[in-house]
Amino acid sequence: MANDLNKERSSVLFQLNGVPSFGAALPLALQHVVAMIVGCVTPSIIVSNSAGIDEKNKVILIQAALVIAGISTLLQLFPIGKYFGSGLPVIMGVSFAYVPSMQAIAEGYDIGTILGAQLVGGLIAIFVGLFIKQLRKFFPPLITGTVVFSIGLSLYPTAINYMAGGTSSDSYGSWKNWAIAIFTLAVVTFLNHFTKGFLKLASILIGIIAGYIVAVVAGMVDFSSIGEAGLLYVPTPMHFGIHFDISACVAIGLLFAINSVQAIGDFSATTIGGLDREPTDRELQGGIVCYGATNILGAFLGGLPTATYSQNVGIVATTKVVNRIVLGGAAVIILVAGLVPKFSALLTTIPQCVLGGATISVFASIAMTGIKLITSQPMTYRNTSIVGLAVAIGMGVTQASASLGTFPSWVTTIFGKSPVVLATIVAIFLNQVLPKDPVNEFTKK
User: What is the pTM of this model?
Assistant: First the structure.
């Protein structure tokens, strides 16, 4: 009888609905938290450094990121009405995809301008969700792959500068920074390639902990911000304000359109890997509309743009644990972490060299994901021209942004600070105007 009960409880884990036991759900929920927590807070740390805000506001930005990640995930898991939320086992969190553009906006304007652009981007995502069938044709894998590849490439300088200690640091480029960064990267790489299970899953988190310990021993960590942080944080709407700049809205808005379509890939991977089926039109529409609406909410609460987390999709596809209570538990843990300022303050004490050593592998993975999407299509002369020209123009103009010196400042903000926007526009344009490849056995591959 007891064995039958255990089997029944265990089987619930592999069902979308149902209530598993607390003991069975908790470790699986923690597994999802471990996989996403570093990725969720790091964009906020990077953007806050670019904006030059003080430690108190940096903590608030991190807390808001965790709070909005928890809320967004819960709304995706447990839909409101027919078209708000996917109802699928996904985890939401602040996305690296927006970091290059957010850095440019933070350096030229402020956090409030990012949030204003995010609000506009949320409206664009809702529009894409409502008309997803009609708009998907503009974003085939070749285009989304080119965009993702450009994002990965554009993040490399950020990782290298962090590995060197951060450009604002007096010790920038010192051997100590490089030694700790390389040690951190070595730990992450070892765990990724020579271990399995939890150690591999938590490789980035463990790498950061290892690098952090070495940094503490080397006297590179200041704990004063933890003592100054409070015990409870209640999100304050409009703390950073919301400001609108057309160039910032265009830059972030395009990324929201791209990410809305790209989310289809994560929703599909979740249902195919965990539920052995394709997502329904309602699930896709509800998921993308919810993605847009929660980003609008995030703009008011100070949480930077979120997206579906592919690493958590991978966990679902690998373990087949699709139960929404399990992922809901993860969302609650993330939300609670966002309400504890001392936790966020602890995260701000991580030296930039440690973050750089841990995240350069993440950025490399983003670029390789883009390549996988690109090469899922036949590498014909037409397709290689689209990808090559889009990336060349996007990266080239960014690296030689002075070439736009005689243009209005808004042109530089949109096209000269991050390669993602220009690469996206060029790729979409070329895909529409270049002659299609003739259908033959090669292009069918």
Answer: 0.76
